[in-house]
Specification:
The chain is built from 46 helices and 7 strands. It is mainly alpha-helical. Helix 6 links the parallel strand 3 and strand 4. It starts with 15 loop residues before the first helix and ends in a 10-residue tail after the last helix.
Length: about 950
Amino acid sequence: MVAGKNTGGPSLVGRDQELAALTDMMDAVRSGTAQTAVVSGDAGVGKTALVQAACAAAGPGDVILRGAALPLGDVTVPYLGLRSALRSAPSYTPAVPFSAAMDGGYAGNVPLLVDDWLTSASATTPVFLVIDDLHCVDQDTLDVLMYLAGGPSERRLGIICTLRAGELGESHPLQTWLADVRRLSQVRMLDLGPLDRPATESQIAGILGAPPPQSLVTDVFGRTAGNPYFTALLVGGLPAGAAELPQGLHGDLRQAVLRSWRGLPQGARNLTRLLAVAGRAVTEHELAAVATCDKLQDSTRVPLFLQAASARGILDLGPNGTYWFHPLIAEVLELDVSADERKIRHAAFASMYELQASTDPDPQLPAVIADHYYFAGNSPAAYRWALAAGDPLNASGSAAERLRMLQRAASLHHQVSGEERAQRELWDRIRATAQTTGAFAAELEAVDALLAGMDLSAEPLAAAELLIRRTHLRYSTGQEFYAMDGVTEAVRLSGAAPESWQHAFALAEFSYACQWNGLPGGPAAAASSLEAARRAGHPRALSYALTASAMVAVRADLPDRAAQLARQGAAEALKAHDFWGYVHAISWLGNAQEAWTSALYADLMHAGRLELAACGGPHTYVAKLAADEAASHLVVGNWRATQEALRIAISLDPGPMGDVSGRLTAARLALLQGRGAEAAAHLARAEEINTDSGAFVNLSFAAVRAQVESAVGHFRMSYESALAGAMRPGPPPTMCEWLLPLAARALADLAQQARDTGFPPDGFVAEARQLKERFPSGLFESGSHTDLYRRQTTAFSLLYEAELGRVRRVPGIGGSWVLAADAFNAGNLPWEEAYCCRRAVEAMLLQGQSGRHRAPALLRRGLALARELRSAPEQEALERLAVHAHIAADPLPAVGVKRAHLPGLTPREQVILEFVVAGKTYSEIASALVISEKTVSSHISNMLRKTGAGNRVDLARLAGLDAVTPGN
């Protein structure tokens, strides 16, 4: 039983490790070992939410006694936290006999009385005493808690306390208590820090009900520094599509932020208002100098005021300067200063730092001075210092900061200078810096500005290179998919100098665009570009020419040559520091060696992103490779690796293409594991970024959209989405293999829906017939087909036929589903295999068809896969079938099999590992899983190769279990 009131709080995200630690502590208590946990952290960091989540998972027999102290100032109420906790005791626990002592009786008896009562109460059931806000409790309560924590270890008593660490001064009585309690063996200290950016993004998504734009995440995280309470206050009330925070801060947030600040002396308040406009850590000497100029402060009292602000948790006095304990405090205080006063103070800081810059080599000073002059309204000085801060010779090491300063200078250029040449040089610098940082939008703005100010006929080669880059950037920002007009014009312009590297570059991308748009001329242009690039000897042009030629070779079924060309293209791209070209080449290196629906492709993308990161590639490019890696991990069932890759792909600012690719994969993972709302939200975010999703054939919009619609019961919309993707002109889109089976599945679901409601399904049967006439066979990618991909296409063809048969209720359809399941097993596509197993069991059990004797093994086979994949929809459906048919839903044989796990194995291999550990023969495994012995042998060979095991006994040893000799 959980006693006490849930007081709410921010949603618990990003606290898996801390929650696991608290859960382990509570499990130890349930096992009979007394434990104490002290959860500390700053205000709003989520201490209460963490404890509430742990208590919410309490067992039915647990007693949770929860109380909280209150900040009552000079008023003292003895044992307030304990009183509120003990009042929540359920009626079946022993009566509380010490209320009189608490109300003023002999205080020395209270610790003993409370300890005796809790010992008695915990004799029959686990008891957890939870005291919030320990920093507000009285000394008597601390004495009781110390006595309890040091009590006998052989009892089922848990004590959980929370405290606000930021408000403990040196002389606070809790400091001594903490020093003493840490020495006790059964005490666990749990320090809760702020959330990282990905966890903050998850919190924002939970509040808004949809994945937030990265611009909003950047805005919120920059202002809250990961504090969940402040994040909830900032984001609450925003519309789901908000891309940034509105100006100003609403009252609740201001009150929360300034609660401690209002307790400062007036002089310290004035000093912190001055410090709020500093924009960086300020030394005591610097602050005293500005305070003197400000004429509002007594510089001699600056050290005293700083100490007062530090003691209240407003400032952090570090060895290198004074920092704000939380950035929102500075923001709130700055808003309290009038606009005119802010300008005066910014000018004072700018003057002080400008004087300092003459002797201080700090490379960050130019940007600081530029910002202060800008906010002071001094445009000429702000422009001059912004240019200095954006100088590539500036050793600050922050290309993003240089880009910000150059963009600031561009915004001021017309106010301080009308010189066109200087403006073009500025846009060139912005473009180069943006390219270094992977800031696609900023680079596209610069490219557009350069083209707008250029006479294309007078500078044909420069114009051609800019036109090609604009094609890349429009693609990378989701605006346009390889339109022919730009690359065609680039070929025409650069044709004036056919020996130039720009002409080779233009020809390569013309070839690439032709191939993607299904137009002739791609192979010839690739050959010409490669010849021209080699003559020019330019690594950038050569990289693109090699990759375009690799694409031609892939589509001509020349995989070895394609791999060789793509590998060379990647090497040349790194020589040229062209990261877009590198990602381009790595993608075709993967396509040359194996279908993207493979573990090998995932490994190639993983290796590529590691190499790119090691070479200093911007995160936007690393994120795109991580997103591609995640997609491949997902289709082969490696969902844990998918999660890891997605964390890289859609954390920080992945750029539009990485974000879209990652969101589509995140949507599929959520969908396959039964989180439909999350899947729909990820898809909505991807569509928000990429408004012309139908044009981007390299993305899986059509298939993912059809799957999401199907999961929420919108079968007609699912059918239309799948059909639209299948009928798109030009090359088939990514995940084209899924489209026709999804269309047929939607019709089958519509037909079943009609039958269930007493309507004839004739119209849907007719649509299925038309679908088959229009598409006699499945849709598959063009180019070289590996053995694995051929097995996969066979599986999808069988799935297409089985779904069409389900529309018509073809007799004996269960056998078709078994064939499809076996084919997906051979193609290493476990999600689809589990689905086919479920459909086969349905056909055999619910429709009374032949082969009912095979249903139990198929059910267990599908269930084993579903459990390993965490596929809640398939697992729940199979478990319902098991109940319906009175089948024991154990995926393993009843005797002799232990749970086993090794990292790096596919879900199917994990299942087979358990049979190997149990000593089952190939024949027994094949019979149990309804697959051939040859397939079992192939799986075990792969497992030996992956783990380095010498044989099956060695494999079982690696799993940490004792193998049983086969046959015994």
